[in-house]
Model the fold of this input.
Amino acid sequence: MNPNTTITNLIGKIKLQYPEFVDKSGLGYCANASMVLQQELKKINIEGKLLYGKYLKDNKEGNTAKAHFSNLIKHFPVENAFHGRVKSHFVKNGNKISDKGGHVALLVGDTLYDVTSAQFGLPISYNLDRFLDMWADVHVVDITMKPERTAWNQKVLYTYQTKEKDTVSMEGLVDIIGNVDEQDRIDFNKWFSIQSKQVQANCKIVSSDELGQDYMLHIDKNTPVRFICAMPRSAAHTENNTTARITVAPTLLGCLFGYARYEYDFRYGLPAVSKEKDKYRGGYEVCELPFKHCLQPNSKLVYDSEYTGEHWLVTYNKPTLHYTPVKIGKAFIYKMDYKSTGKSEPTTTYEMYVEVHKEDGIKLTPTTHLNKGFHKVVFTIVEDSVNVNKVDKENDLTVTEISSGEYNSVKQLSAAMLSMESNSIPKYLKW
Done:
């Protein structure tokens, strides 16, 4: 059996053993898959080199690969944590592939063996020249995988070509960062090392890769132009008071439950023309805050954090001196029904309406996704038992997609001023 047949047969076996290398054409697992192939080939005395390409060229090969890759991403389900994040990046970039992306395959002789080649519409084996025609920067690398297996660090052994197409011979090893967030993690670790022992002992550092989304959600009566980390004015007396932060959550109901005063706002909220700083207009603006690393406090720092999914965005380097929000929707409670239980707290059923502007939608709960559009959300809280992780299973959660007309007709009754600025509100609404 010739080497090419041996290697292609081995790739088939690897794909059966690792279904993630096949799902969505193996996107995100190219380095992992290539390393597995390299290790398996060593067992039969075939040596291969890991080849890393970056920056798809603006030529026939590069543009064909871009078109195939773009079509693949368009059909990604946003519910999947990793693939949803890839699609989010794609949409934010104007439905274009980011230049930050790259690809890894295994070079044996002059042939590339590419376990996840389907993401670019390529065969599993092709000539080295084709790879060089596609990618502007091409290096032979050593790779160290990270725990999430879709991110890695690399060392360049030598370079085939640079973005300027100059041939370069490199002596020894040159360390480079294979993941653009590595320096950000170093900055975060330095900041974390000088925080109080209480915070260090009771917080977990979370990356956007680990969470599966590169943004956090925040609700506000009036979203500021930018957020600057500070001690929350409304934190419970038992919560940590040493770390300035912006309190956020990965889900919309997590934000609502963490805010905790939505029931008070509904019953006693100040009119939109009040002189109070946070003017209540019948509902909340929903914004996303992009992030790379944040803190997840446990219940010793925030008593209800395990029920709300609360996270903290903090200032740990120059780019995080402030966070710029992106408004992606609105939410308001239309109805609250109380039912006596004979105990200290009643059962409460909420009828909430949500407008989502974000192209790939948002998470209502960890397992319920809201697409772009308008939604009626009904859920029940039993005896004040609020837990965003269980609301799907235990709280009779129902989500119904509705028309903009139905949404606006309810909004006019409950939150007519949510779309208005104070100076534009007609006199008859100034109550």
About this structure: The two ends are 85 Å apart (CA to CA). The chain has two domains: 3-176, 192-420.
